[in-house]
Design brief:
Shape: elongated
Low-confidence stretches: 1-13
Number of helices: 5
Strand content: 25-35%
Radius of gyration: 25 Å
Helix content: 10-25%
Order of helices and strands: HEEEEHEEEEEHEEEEHEEEEEH
Mean pLDDT: 91
C-alpha cells in the first residue's frame, strides 16, 4: 500500500485522504438489507423494535450476533487499505461477476450502501471489497466472507430458558408411554419429585432440560395463526420458572414424510420450524429415561 501511495505521489497526484468507505452508511440508518450471489439471496428487514427478521423465511428472527457482527463490520469500512485502482484486477480479487452484492436501504427507501465482497484475504479474517460502480479495491479488515446459508442467519436456539430456574415440567405426547408432571421442591436447588408423589433423581431432569435446549432450528417451514393449537404432538413440554416465566414446546411429525421433525413454541408463536432427526431422538430418549 505504501508503494502504491508513493507511486501516486510520484505521478503528481495528491496525498490520498483516508476516511469512511461508505460515507452514507451508519448502522442506525439500516432498515433493509439484500445480499445476492448468483441464484442465492438473503433479505433482511429491521422491525419497529429494532430486531431483524428474514423476510424470505416467513419473517423469522435473525441471529442478533450475526447481524451485530455484520453491521459493525460494514460501519468500520475505510479507505485505508487500498489494494488496486485497476479494474482488470477485479477477477483476481473475486470482485467480478462471482462477487457477493450487499445493498442496504434506510427507512425512507434510500440506498445507503452498495458494496461488492470478493475473496477472502490470505490468512483469513478479512476480505476484498469495492463499492458498486467503483474500480478501487480495498482490504476490509473486519469483514469476513459472508455466507448465504440460512442456518448462518437464523436465530437457531429454539428454547432459551435458564435450566437452574425451571421449577415445573409437564410432559405429554403420542410418543410417550404416559403423561407426567415433575416439580421442584420449593426453596431447594435440586430436589425434584413426581407431582404429588415420590422423589426422583436430579440427573434425568438435567439431561432432559439440556436436550430440549439443544434443539437447534435447521429451517423455517411456515407460519400459522397465533392461537391455533397443535394436534396430537409427538411431545409437548410445558416449563414453569420460579420467576414466573413459562416456556411451551410442541414437537410433531413432518407431514411431508421427511426424516426431520417440526416444532412450535406455544400457541402465541406463529413459526413452524424444522429440527434434525438426531436432535429429536436425543430429546425423546431423555424424556423416556425421565419417565422410567
Amino acid at each position: 500500500m505504501a508503494a502504491l501511495d508513493l507511486g501516486l505521489r510520484d505521478k503528481g497526484g495528491e496525498a490520498r485522504t483516508i476516511g469512511r468507505l461508505a460515507v452514507d452508511f451508519y448502522r442506525d440508518r439500516a432498515a433493509r438489507a439484500l445480499l445476492v450471489r448468483g441464484e442465492e439471496r438473503m433479505e433482511l428487514q429491521r422491525g419497529g423494535d429494532g430486531a431483524w427478521v428474514l423476510t424470505e423465511r416467513h419473517g423469522y428472527p435473525a441471529s442478533k450476533r450475526t447481524m451485530d457482527e455484520l453491521l459493525t463490520a460494514l460501519t468500520s469500512l475505510t479507505t485505508l487499505d487500498l489494494v488496486s485502482l485497476d479494474a482488470t484486477t477485479h477477477q483476481e480479487y473475486g470482485l467480478a461477476q462471482d462477487a457477493l452484492a450487499i445493498e442496504v436501504w434506510d427507512e425512507e427507501g434510500q440506498r445507503v450502501l452498495g458494496l461488492l465482497q470478493g475473496a477472502e484475504v490470505s490468512g483469513g479474517g478479512a476480505s476484498y471489497v469495492r463499492l458498486m460502480g467503483d474500480d478501487a479495491v480495498y482490504r476490509a479488515a473486519r469483514l469476513r466472507p459472508i455466507r448465504l446459508d440460512p442456518r448462518f442467519w437464523l436465530d437457531v436456539q429454539w428454547l432459551t430458558y435458564p435450566e437452574a430456574l425451571v421449577s415445573r415440567i409437564e410432559l405429554s405426547g403420542t410418543a410417550l408411554s404416559v403423561s407426567r408432571t415433575f416439580v421442584r421442591d420449593e426453596n431447594t436447588v435440586d430436589t425434584w419429585r413426581v407431582e404429588g408423589g415420590e422423589r426422583i433423581g436430579i440427573a434425568p431432569i438435567k439431561n432432559h432440560l439440556r436436550a430440549l435446549r439443544s434443539l437447534f432450528v435447521e429451517s423455517v417451514r411456515g407460519r400459522v395463526d397465533v392461537g391455533a393449537s397443535v394436534a396430537a404432538p409427538l411431545l409437548s413440554a410445558e416449563l414453569d420458572l420460579i420467576d414466573g416465566r413459562h416456556f411451551s414446546a410442541s414437537i410433531m411429525t413432518d407431514p411431508s414424510g421427511a426424516d426431520g421433525v417440526l416444532g412450535r413454541r406455544g400457541s402465541d408463536d406463529p413459526f413452524i420450524v424444522e429440527f434434525g432427526l438426531s436432535s429429536w431422538q436425543a430429546v425423546l430418549a431423555s424424556a423416556e429415561r425421565l419417565l422410567e
